[in-house]
Hints:
Low-confidence stretches: 2-16, 33-38
Mean pLDDT: 90
Number of helices: 47
Number of strands: 5
Amino acid sequence: MSLSSIRSKISRHVWLRSGWVVLCFLVSIAPILRGQRGAALDAEKAQIASGDYQQAIAALEKAVSKTPDNGEAVALLIRARIETGDYRKAFDQGEDYLERASHPEVAAQTAEAAMRIGEYDRAATFVEKITTARAEWLKALLSERRGDRDIAKAAFENVAGILNDRRSVSGEERALAAGALAKLGRFKDANQVYRDAAKSDPKNAAIKVAWGKMFAEKHNPADAQGLFREALEANHNNTSAMVGMAELAAERTDGQTEQWIERALKVNPNLAEAHLLRARNALEEDEDDTAQKELDEVFKTNPRLLEAWSLLAVQDYLQAYERAQAGAGDGPWVTRILKENPHYGEVFSDLGDFSLLKRQLMEGVEFYRRALALNPGLDDTRSRLGINLFRLGQEQEARKILEEAYAKDPFNIWTVNTLRLMDSFANFTTFDTPHFAVKLQKKESELLRPYVADLLEATVQDMAKRYKYKPQQRVTFEMYPDHEDFAVRTVGLPGLGALGATIGNVVAMDSPSARPVGTFHWGSTLWHEAAHVISIGITSGRVPRWFTEGLSVYEETQAHPGWGDPMDVQTIQALQQHKLLPLEDLNGAFVRPKFPGQVPFAYFQGGLICEFIVEKYGFPKILTILNAYARGRTDAEGIKDALGLTLKDFDTEFLKYAREQTYGFAEAVNLDWASPEGRKAEEFRAEAQKNPRNYFARMHLAAALAKESKFDEAIREAQAAKELFPLYTGRGSPYHVLADVYDKQGMKDKAAAELQKWKEQKGRDPETFKRLARLQKELGQTREAIATMQEALYISIFDREMHDSLGAWYLEASDPRAAVREYQAALALNPPDKAGAHYNLANAYKALEDNRKARQEVLAALEIAPGFRPAQKLLLELSGN
């Protein structure tokens, strides 16, 4: 996994920055809903409160046409028009009314309409005519936009001060005060006031939305979602709640974002927040045309929206970055933004976020510094600065900044989790290899160190030759026995599904102990991440996600036979459903998957593409494509440069290759027959005769026949099943059936051959590895047995029996140095027979002709068990020397 996989954890600003809309609605409509002219407009008020805006508009237009000077009706009509996106008409109607009459609610609604169309100066004139708390709120918002932070702060304090008034404070006014408290950073107070507001007015959707947005801002998505749902129950057309749900869905990348955006835009086609979210998502997926289209929609309504300008600055930056142009990030949109608001640090925060998505950590950090220099109140940005300094290995400065971030915002779980992780580093030990700075948990370090160090250096030695590249500085490598610590290290939160991640010059991954035995090949994962170091380094981070992941998947399979991820059910189902994507869409599958399991399937497709390129065009073409990315070339340009193909022609050739490689077995796998439970041998036989290409039917039939000692038939069925789907190595696989049958027939060589094929097809069961190794040893194939057991350590390195067997076999094979390593590992696992473990290690040192260490170990054995006669004998032998 590379850095861009953490995109869902980068917090957004578009929706939260524009959260003023909720509170504008809240306070502007509140007095109207309470009624200033009795019950004359009760029906229209109820319609607006429940989201029946069109019915309200129709009724209110009639009311206003009859009595044009009815300020309450005009205010309600403007409100309904704003909710449906008819901002210009709302503004014109309000302005027309205010030219001939004075009405505070009309002024408030007209001010919001003015802000919605970018008429900020006009909005300010309307606010000046209002002497209420909401006037202070609107002044604060307008001051914020101009960058007048002190004026805005004073205004927010005035709004919060309404809680101290002796008069009765309504639920809507309480919510307004809560919003002001949140703006002032007093989140605990704000939460309590929101609670009081909701209690006093439980059916008010706007209160629920404003409260939910604060929860979302403070990284509490569960409570935020609950409040948004409550808001939608009260007002089925509340677009702010819909955008809130879309934001939360975007963070989860569960495919529901677009549904919520569509729903919101159906109510309000001009809703800037929805278009901005779409634009941001499109930029994340490298869909510039889509992003520009959405921003154009925003500018049709409000050509002066800073959040939209900020995304244009991001778009300029990304285009310059892709072309490897210097000075990216200081384009004309940044200049224009800062002229409008000299303290708008949010633009640099956005630039920092997108730098991270492009694996440009150094650039991202510098953007975050610039953001905070302009606006020190960007607490989330401060947290991200500290976290990414930590990722760059600058731990001292990172801790200082993260502690500052925590002091300002103790609710930021990314900050809290990262500080806790940094504290846990006291339990880690560090050491250097020629190319890596390694960090392992102290309890595991003694065991893992030699294996990890050797494999890390092997990755460099292997790939440096083929890629003609070595890391320019020592790479930090970290292993975490607690998967959640690894997740925090990479994305700041627990719950990450990946096994490893490469972020800048840091590689982090799960320790072998973090996953159940037999489910995790830590050697393959390490190799995968090391390949990221190469591809990202060659291209200075410009390699697209699909290619760096695909290349890492390919490198796993090339490292050793049997490495790489075994074929899983999700991949088979995706192949059966023809889910392979055109190359131009593949990167988007990593960023915003459209169906469950699409991300791992995108890994599979990326790896298959790289395999296809190497097999058909040769490995040097991989280097040509990487060099094209380094020069800022696109996918289409890189494929054309290297292979002479358009993307369309490439897709055609690749799809043909993929079908040849996969569709045969994909069609043979009928998952309805995957489990043998509840079925008898006769059913499998009947199905196999009816559908001879049903893999699972033939596999289960083979197992049933073997159980009945019908060995010849069992062999025939197992061989047939194996040909249909050779990649299946799970429980009861044809390899296991054949090995069992051959074993019972006394043909150990054939049994071993089947299990060897199982291993090469990415088998992962440690007991099967040990069985194969023992068979090989019985057959006199000591070197092969050692290789098998050594491979098993990448799946079950905490298995003491494996290390003991390897130690003995290495001694037998006259490799005492390797035997020492294995017996040291066995001793590090705290065996029940420590005396025996020290004795074995002493024998290995003796074979290595290191009598001093041999004597130390035998004395350690005798200290534990003074009567241990073999150790006494060995000590005499050593003393004689």
